[in-house]
Design brief:
The structure is a single chain. The chain has 413 residues and is of the alpha/beta class. Helix content is 33%, strand content 14%. The protein is built from 13 helices and 12 strands. The strands form 2 sheets. Strands 1-7-6-5-4-2-3 form a 7-stranded mixed β-sheet, with helices on both faces. Strands 8-9-12-11-10 form a 5-stranded mixed β-sheet. Helix 1 packs antiparallel against helix 2, helix 2 packs parallel to helix 9 and helix 3 packs across helix 8. It binds pyridoxal-5'-phosphate. Pyridoxal-5'-phosphate binds next to helix 3 and helix 4.
Length: 413
């Protein structure tokens, strides 16, 4: 019998094979098939500077986090070939939260006087970070309807360094054209950043559509079990800093600058969080298949319900982004939003469900219901990003669909 640590070229395998194996070779000393939780801060050196495998301090790098970072990079790199010198097509970085990932990215790529285009229905926390944390440091922003490519082109200024995309958006599930927006951003010398939290790398691969950086709140579908907060960046190899900016690490590449800032600011994912997230990533594909089958059934049920005035789901032919979503994604995802005519009715639905749990967040195996206006999007009230007050958002879980439909039926009755 022979054993070998050689593995296939992950860029030629399917999504789940990459998600389950990339970065996760069995442990060299014990053969453990799952990367151990390296709950450790420092590493013995064989003589000064004699690092074993490059590890010296866990803010800089930790083996469990490295496994997650490599797995995420492989998950997002479908269809991308390694570069001519054999480097992977993308590099992954894991953080303590999605917003920590976003904060680190923005510190790496913008400076005072620069300008960022943000979706006019961005995740509220992203908008708050850009407007209220980066704003006072001199970074300007313009909220734009990203479903309108010409409006984005018109909003570009000489100082625009980043076009920030979310598709589908949270909570209004707007769908925008990643390839077209990449063209607009690159014509302007700006980076195209895509928050891929809602679609997940299983359903949408923005790097292959021309994006430079993918952002995740791994708290959501990637973790998938509502038991860990985390974030990630996946940076395309070769993406260059905008506006002639130099990297503090030397050179001009985005990945090098992000790596420098990840270590210099230190908002990293801890080993146990990295391990939980890696565990979630392995089952992402099977969970998403069930999430979206259930979501499609929920959307049809709501669409036919007399108490519902509008259902927003990219899988419905009535959704304005339906055709684009069908082209750009390999499925329509697990999020469904709907309107019921008044805030009082929306709050009432949220109070009555028994299988859908009233809670913020999304993407876990359990179904959640929330009122964006008063909950997740409370921080954008009174801004261009304010959401309708009769809107209810569902994160459709992977329970038995009959139970989900019955629950919504009794809540709407
Ligand atoms: C939750 C979320 C974030 C922020 O991530 P955290 O892990 O909560 O910091 C960013 N973008 C989207 C689309 C989200 O849903």
């Amino acid at each position: 019998m022979t054993t070998s640590s050689e593995h296939p070229d992950w860029t030629t395998t399917g999504f789940s094979t990459r998600a389950i194996h990339a970065g996760q070779d069995p442990d060299a000393t014990t053969g453990a098939v799952v990367p151990p939780i390296h709950q450790v801060s420092t590493y013995k050196q064989d003589g000064v500077g004699g690092l074993r495998g490059g590890y010296e301090y866990s803010r800089s790098a930790n083996p469990t986090r490295t496994a997650l970072e490599e797995a995420l990079a492989a998950a997002e790199s479908g269809g991308l070939r390694p570069t001519a010198d054999g480097s992977p097509a993308a590099r992954g970085f894991a953080f303590a939260s999605g917003l920590a990932a976003e904060d680190t990215l923005l510190r790496a790529v913008v400076r005072p006087g620069d300008h960022v285009i943000v979706p006019d229905d961005a995740y509220g926390g992203t908008y708050r970070l850009i407007a209220r944390v980066f704003g006072p440091w001199g970074v300007e922003h313009t909220p734009v309807d990203l479903t309108d490519v010409e409006a984005v082109r018109a909003a570009v200024r000489p100082e625009t360094r980043v076009v920030w995309v979310e598709t589908p958006t949270n909570p209004l599930l707007g769908v925008s054209d990643v390839a077209a927006l990449a063209g607009v951003a690159h014509d302007a010398g700006a980076l195209l950043v895509v928050d891929n939290t809602f679609a997940t790398p299983y359903l949408q691969q923005p790097l292959a559509l021309g994006a430079d950086v993918v952002v995740h709140s791994t708290t959501k579908y990637v973790g998938g079990h509502s038991d860990v907060v985390g974030g990630a960046l996946v940076v395309a190899t070769g993406a260059q800093l905008p506006g002639g900016l130099g990297s503090p690490a030397g050179g001009t590449d985005v990945a090098g600058a992000v790596g420098f800032h990840q270590n210099a600011s230190g908002a990293v994912a801890g080993p146990f969080d990295a391990w939980l997230t890696l565990r979630g990533l392995k089952t992402l594909a099977v969970r998403m298949d069930r999430h979206q089958a259930n979501a499609a059934a929920v959307a049809e049920f709501l669409d036919a319900h007399p108490a519902v005035t509008e259902v927003i789901y990219p899988g419905l032919a009535s959704h304005p982004g339906h055709e684009l979503a069908a082209r750009q994604m390999s499925g329509f995802g697990g999020m469904v939003s709907f309107r019921v005519g008044s805030e009082a009715k929306a709050l009432d639905v949220c109070a009555r469900t028994r299988v859908f749990t009233l809670a913020e967040s999304l993407g876990g195996v359990e179904s959640l219901v929330e009122h964006p206006g008063r909950m997740t999007h409370g921080s954008v009230a009174g801004t261009a990003l304010e959401v309708p007050d009769d809107l209810v958002r569902l994160s459709v879980g992977i329970e038995d669909v009959e139970d989900l439909l019955a629950d919504l039926g009794q809540a709407l009755a």
